[in-house]
Amino acid sequence: MPIFEYICENCGNEFEELVFERDERPACPKCQSVQTSKLMSAVRSKVGSGATGGDYEAAAPSAPSASSSPCSGCSGGNCSSCK
Fold first, then answer.
1. Among 19, 31, 39, 43, which residue has the fewest nearby CB atoms (within 10 Å)?
2. What residue spans define the domains of the chain?
3. From CA 76, how far away is CA 12, in angstroms rounded?
4. pTM above 0.90, yes or no
């Protein structure tokens, strides 16, 4: 069952709603207006294939450069190996 993000055109409230029908416009929980629009949401994608199904990953920020890293021993932005 899809959960969509909406914005109320009347009061500007952003909210999430479980929607059963494709063209349904849920009422705003704040002002009860049905003048709502779907927002574009960030999504997670599945990486890999096979029996394990791969891993899920979200869009990640780029790794910090060595000059901006608080740890001089880091390479690739993961400081867990330097601690």
1. 43
2. 1-41
3. 40
4. no
